[in-house]
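Run log, item B.
One chain of 149 residues. Sequence copied directly from the ordering sheet:
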Amino acid sequence: MSAKLPESVLVVIHTPALDVLLLERARRPGFWQSVTGSLERQDEPLAHAARREVREETGIDAAPARFLDWRLANAFHIYAHWRGRFAPGTTHNTEHVFSLSVPAPVAVLLAPEEHQAQRWLPWREAAAACFSWSNRDAIRMLPARCART
């Protein structure tokens, strides 16, 4: 298996009422998050990675135009227990934020190797449930972002 690239996407999936989809990590029970994933190759367009990750992790196959690129990137320290997935010496990741609005909460098809449960929560509860500060902050920004579109 090749090393993961230290560049990823975060996709906050939500309804117009701002209910947010969260997924529970399979290998880290209690760790709830939005859809996330690394780029597969350095030249993969960010929007393509966002759409691919949503399809892989939830089964939702949304049109590319439905993904909103927030033009926001967060750099964060990679937790030690996940560092082995990356090239030696890699300690930080850059995460690009996207959102995807769906008409209503939908059942998702989880990738069992990645996630073991899913739930839809109002945005404030979803933000509080996230283990990742960048995910929590993105969900907290959701009402303002949606008001602009």
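Observations after the first pass:
- The first strand starts at residue 7 and ends at 14.
- The beta strands are 7-14, 19-25, 32-33, 35-38, 67-77, 92-101, 115-122.
Flagged for discussion on Thursday.
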